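User: My collaborator sent over this chain with a note saying "see what the structure looks like." That's all I know about it. Can you take a look?
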Amino acid sequence: AGGGSSGPRGSAAEDGGPPAPERVLFPPTFSVSEIKNKQRRHFMFLRWKQQQRKEKLAAKKKRRKEREALGDKAPPKAIPKTIENQREYDETIVDPNDEEVAFDEATDEFAPYFNRQTVPKILITTSDRPRGRTVRFCEQLSTVIPNSHVYYRRGLALKRIIPQCIARDFTDLMVINEDRKIPNGLVISHLPDGPTAHFRMSSVRLRKEIKRRGKEPTEHIPEVILNNFTTRLGHSVGRMFASLFPHDPQFIGRQVATFHNQRDYIFFRFHRYIFKSEKKVGIQELGPRFTLKLRSLQKGTFDSKFGEYEWIHKRREMDTSRRKFHL
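Assistant: Without extra context I'll predict from the sequence alone. Here is the result:
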């Protein structure tokens, strides 16, 4: 039923050597789909996959032994092809030594924060009549971001909330939107002059839904890590995330908030370092976790009708290639 023969096994024994180990040899034209019996077909597929894994592992061990034997003369390791390293060239990728970029960052809306002239003060609110999951998410998010306060909308429009936030010295407004009782959107508006970013939110996991999570986070300020925000647009988004936390470039703490950009999806994780010894360290996830996808970046504060947009995600125009990224 497609199993093939077990190969010649008598030659080694006839020569006086030890018998060769039994190994299943599938014919070159072997196809699982030709087997009519469903149970037999499933069994032979698992057997074929097991043989493939063994052959792959044996080839890997062989290559490692060859590299060890050659020592310094060994050829460099092949770099695997991924979507990231085959990324299409983007002319907006930032050079760290670019004087124009440095000038823009010294004069943009986030410059007072990075110059330590302002201290972040965040207002977290929701859409109208939030459900329990969104409420719990906002409460947990407020324990991640220092000096953040949760208030509920009570029917107020954002255009009325923003002047009140500015009058009370809030530096940022975060709005958690929901659909069918699940958080599905995030709006961050930097006060008083913008910009405003709108993200689609997905894969939200609260603390109780994370396996092997650590104890509740403490009130210590977390260290912030921003990964792979390489373009001009990515720099703006990364600076917006950084401005939510107190700015101290030399700060090192046990709690870490990470914004990791991969293929324009921003993964947020909140961890704690566990120092096992002077040389060994582990990480322990504290939660919550979520994933963001940028939908638009708007100049100024939130204005859905008359606002001027710096960037809008247009799926049919921008998602024509899997290797084209914008952040």
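A starting point for your reply to your collaborator: Residues 6 and 25 are 6 Å apart (CA to CA).
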